[in-house]
Design a protein that fits this description.
Protein name: histidine kinase
Organism: Brevibacillus brevis (Bacillus brevis)
Shape: elongated
Number of helices: 10
GO molecular function: kinase activity
Membrane topology: Multi-pass membrane protein
Order of helices and strands: HHEEHEEHHHEHHEEHEEHEE
Enzyme class: transferase
């Protein structure tokens, strides 16, 4: 059901309820006025009651000839009906007995413990109120029809105006969503509004921006992966085509070169798969308590051949022999390996790389953390490149030869692995002075 139809139905129901309420109020007001009039002249009402009861007793506990009796207090009342066992024995005024039974004030008559009848009466004030009520009930249907018609027309115009005002931003939002679906025109939402429609529009625009950013990232990833795959594939293809055309066997050097390119492809594929699983949250961790110092010694042993090739000294210092962390060993080793191998790659031959582990308390954190510092005295990272070092396939040193470079995914994989353990990485660097990566992990 459309909003406009709902508004029309709601307004119509409200009008009917308002008229019924008005009718009910009028009805209740009549009875309140009738009873209030009794309280104002209570003595006169009671005197009339006593006069009828006295007549009954004086005539031998009988109402014989009461219909022609002349009663002193009857002149104070516009309407009187005496009813005994459903029969009317005395009546004064213009109204019928049934009308008076319905709207008159009731006075019970008794002689001792015996009930001898009931009076239905109206004094002048009550009768005038009754006349007004009767007149009002008589004209109320016409007034109701006229007011209903007038109100309905006015409400209809108001509803059309309000529904247009209410549905206008909805139509714009729908148009913006259609633009998102088509993707060929920019989506425009009524964000300038200060109501719920403005909040919805802002949320939709932010969602659209997020989707657009995700789509750009997807396209960029495909482009980067294709670019990274292209070079080793071209090298392998070229060498194999040359060997096929010449019929000459591949030399040991060519074999080694082709093996390097295959390993590069393998590393790239594994890194892309790892990163995809991490970013999609598909990697389920199975943490166990591990000694962080032992993990650092393990990763240092795995990278020793890289350091020895460049004559780089790698040292470890831990303030405690045991720093317990709850981690999945393979994931943390992968993150630390990427950081340490990066530090070795960017350190000149004869340089130094230092690992430092300690327990720290941070001012904005309730619990203590383990901190690992991976520090080198290498070439450093330019300040302009620091915000981008966790981007896929980003290399701060754009002039590095391809054989000396990695896949460009090491830091982002390290960051994702650390984040999966509720930790984070911070970096400090100066060109020509070296770089420090600080890794924080909850104890």
């Amino acid at each position: 059901m459309k909003i406009r139809t709902r508004l029309i139905l709601t307004m119509s129901v409200m009008i009917v309820l308002l008229l019924l309420f008005q009718l009910g109020v009028t009805h209740i007001q009549f009875y309140i006025s009738r009873d209030f009039a009794y309280l104002e002249e209570k003595d006169t009402f009671e005197s009339l009651r006593k006069e009828f009861e006295q007549f009954y007793r004086e005539h031998g506990d009988s109402w014989e000839n009461v219909g022609g009796a002349r009663l002193a207090y009857s002149g104070s009342f516009a309407e009187i009906v005496l009813s005994v066992d459903g029969k009317v024995l005395y009546q004064q005024g213009k109204l019928s007995a049934d009308e008076l039974r319905s709207d008159g004030y009731k006075l019970a008559l008794a002689s001792g413990d015996k009930r001898i009848g009931r009076l239905y009466v109206m004094n002048d004030s009550q009768y005038k109120t009754y006349e007004f009520k009767t007149m009002w009930y008589g004209i109320l249907p016409n007034i109701g029809i006229a007011s209903l018609l007038f109100t309905f027309i006015a409400a209809l115009l108001a509803i059309f105006f309000l529904s247009w005002r209410l549905t206008s931003p909805i139509r714009k939002i729908i148009a913006g969503i259609e633009a998102i679906k088509k993707g060929d025109t920019p989506a425009i939402f009524p964000e300038q509004r200060k109501d719920e429609f403005g909040a919805i529009s802002k949320a939709l625009r932010e969602m659209n921006d997020s989707l657009a950013a995700a789509e750009r990232a997807r396209k960029q990833l495909l482009s980067d992966v294709a670019h990274e795959l292209k070079t080793p594939l071209m090298i392998i293809q070229g060498e194999l085509e040359l060997a096929h055309e010449t019929g000459a066997p591949l030399s040991a050097a060519k074999h080694a070169s082709l093996l390097d390119e295959v390993l590069r492809l393998s590393r790239l594929v594994h890194d892309v798969l790892d990163l995809s699983r991490l970013e999609a949250g598909m990697t389920e961790l199975h943490p166990r308590t591990e000694n962080l110092v032992a993990l650092l010694e393990d990763v240092t042993a795995k990278t020793r051949f890289l350091a020895e090739d460049k004559n780089i000294q790698v040292s470890i210092h831990a303030e405690e022999e045991m720093i317990p962390v709850s981690v999945e060993k393979s994931r943390i080793l992968q993150a630390l390996y990427n950081l340490l191998s990066n530090a070795i790659s960017f350190t000149n031959p004869g340089g130094k790389v230092h690992l430092h582990a300690e327990t720290v308390r941070l001012p904005d954190r309730e619990h203590p953390y383990a901190r690992i510092r991976v520090e080198d005295n290498g070439v450093g990272i330019p300040e302009a490149d620091l915000p981008h070092i966790y981007n896929r396939f980003y290399r701060a040193d754009h002039s590095r030869a391809r054989p000396s470079g990695g896949t460009g995914l090491g830091l982002v994989i390290a960051q994702q692995n650390i984040a999966a353990h509720q930790g984070w990485i911070e970096v400090e660097s100066a060109v020509g002075m070296g770089t420090v990566f600080n890794v924080y992990l909850p104890l």
